[in-house]
Write a structure and sequence with these properties.
The structure is a single chain. By secondary structure, the protein is of the alpha+beta class. 20% of the residues lie in helices and 24% in strands. It has an eight-stranded antiparallel beta sheet. Strand 3 and strand 4 form a beta hairpin. The protein starts with a helix and ends with a strand.
Length: 173
């Protein structure tokens, strides 16, 4: 029992004070805990885009089972758009403090080094080959069952079998 209490206290201390994103989707709600100590630009970007309502009605346009679910293109809604809050792409914030060694990680989608905009993805498997190529800036802390539900609507090509949208994103600091 003491070990369990200790584990719970450590978990609480780890996430205490970290910003939360409550992402309501057409398939359910996902709670994401951000890591501003690891990726301050990516966190600021998501927080400001969420607070401005930009992500509302943006689809998860790319869903690949056993890999990830991707969304955040609020401009074109097809994976070809999505500007950052900085008005231009921003640099990668890859860190050895966080690694692509488990599912449920929140990371920036990009088209190469230094091309981060508004798009993000949530991993559904270990994706170690992405280390050093994509910025991890948070993780799912509740609603991973919803992530799996969305993943089940994907295909090997990434084209969703059914449209899945972000309804609303709320920030809790």
């Amino acid at each position: 029992m003491k070990k369990l209490i200790g584990l719970l206290l450590c978990t609480f201390a780890l996430f205490a004070g970290a910003p939360l994103i409550i992402m309501e989707t057409s398939e359910g709600t996902i709670e994401l805990t951000l890591k501003p100590d690891v990726a301050p630009l990516a966190c600021e970007n998501m927080i400001k885009l969420a607070e401005s309502g930009k992500y509302e009605n943006a689809p998860f346009h790319r869903i690949i089972p056993k890999f990830m679910i991707q969304g955040g293109d609020y401009e074109r809604k097809n994976g070809t758009g999505g500007q950052s809050v900085f008005g231009k792409p921003f640099k990668d914030e890859c860190s050895s403090k966080v690694r692509f060694e488990k599912p449920g990680l929140l990371a920036m989608a990009n088209a190469g080094p230094g091309t981060n905009g508004s798009q993000f993805f949530i991993t559904t498997a270990k994706t170690e080959w992405l280390q050093g190529k994509h910025t991890i800036f948070g993780e799912v802390t509740s609603g991973y069952d919803v992530v799996k539900k969305i993943e089940a609507l994907g295909s090997p090509s990434g084209r969703p079998k059914k449209e899945v949208k972000i309804i609303k994103m709320t920030v809790k600091q």
